[in-house]
């Protein structure tokens, strides 16, 4: 919970990565609700009232994130739409989440037209899903062209997307400590690298379960 509190405060300070943290908190809250209501006393460690208090903290963090006001920077030079079209498309290719591509397309009509580029959605499909998965969910338009954008969101509903994180928590199996990869920790093991395992957001939530 201390780690979560620091993450939320970081998001509030930087005004970045709001959506994924809100999704993480919502997933955690739903999981804890199920445990507290169904079998909390036999699964959760500690007094059940403490977990209820932690759930209240999660709701408070969610409210803070809902109320966040993004400060738009004052334009001091070139913007994305000032770049040549090929460079704009090149930047869009770096987005690994189709929802981000859709959001970007809602900024201006010109960007909206660019984000409909079939090649962008084709690369997204090929990045996250196997050829076999794609072949099973083919969608063809009236013009005989593959509907890559529609296929991407259909594939997302059927299969898990490839997870990518700029920074992940690490768990030391020797010291039983959670730490950020770039901060490290004073491990006493002979081979520290073999003791450290990455922890995904879902894996972090699973630590609250037995």
TrEMBL record:
GO cellular component term, pick one: cytoplasm
Annotated function: Substrate recognition component of a SCF (SKP1-CUL1-F-box protein) E3 ubiquitin-protein ligase complex which mediates the ubiquitination and subsequent proteasomal degradation of target proteins. Probably recognizes and binds to phosphorylated target proteins during skeletal muscle atrophy. Recognizes TERF1.
Domain (F-box) ranges: 77-124
Primary residence: cytoplasm
Pathway this chain belongs to: Protein modification; protein ubiquitination
Locations listed in the record: Cytoplasm; Nucleus
Keywords: Cytoplasm, Nucleus, Ubl conjugation pathway
Cytoplasm listed as a keyword: yes
Alphabetical list of SUPFAM superfamilies matching this protein: F-box domain
A GO BP entry: protein ubiquitination
Protein name (record): F-box only protein 32
Subunit organization: Part of the SCF (SKP1-CUL1-F-box) E3 ubiquitin-protein ligase complex SCF(FBXO32) formed of CUL1, SKP1, RBX1 and FBXO32.
Gene3D superfamilies assigned: 1.20.1280.50
Coiled-coil intervals, chain numbering: none
Gene responsible for this protein: fbxo32
């Amino acid at each position: 919970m201390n780690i979560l509190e620091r993450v939320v405060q970081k998001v509030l300070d930087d005004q970045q990565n709001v959506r994924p943290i809100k999704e993480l908190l919502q997933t955690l809250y739903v999981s804890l609700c199920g445990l507290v209501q169904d079998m909390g006393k036999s699964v959760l460690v500690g007094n059940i009232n403490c977990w209820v208090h932690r759930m209240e903290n999660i709701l408070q963090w969610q409210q803070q994130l809902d109320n966040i006001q993004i400060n738009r920077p004052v334009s001091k030079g070139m913007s994305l739409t000032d770049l040549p079209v090929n460079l704009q498309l090149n930047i869009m290719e770096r987005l690994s989440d189709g929802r981000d591509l859709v959001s970007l397309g809602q900024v201006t009509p010109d960007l909206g037209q660019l984000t409909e580029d079939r090649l962008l959605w084709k690369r997204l499909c090929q990045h996250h899903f196997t050829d076999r998965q794609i072949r099973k969910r083919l969608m063809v338009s009236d013009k005989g062209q593959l509907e890559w954008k529609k296929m991407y969101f259909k594939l997302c509903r059927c299969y898990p997307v490839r997870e990518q994180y700029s920074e992940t928590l690490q768990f030391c199996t020797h010291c039983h400590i959670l730490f950020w990869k770039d901060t490290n920790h004073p491990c006493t093991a002979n081979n520290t690298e073999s003791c450290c395992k990455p922890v995904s957001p879902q894996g972090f939530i699973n630590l609250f379960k037995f």
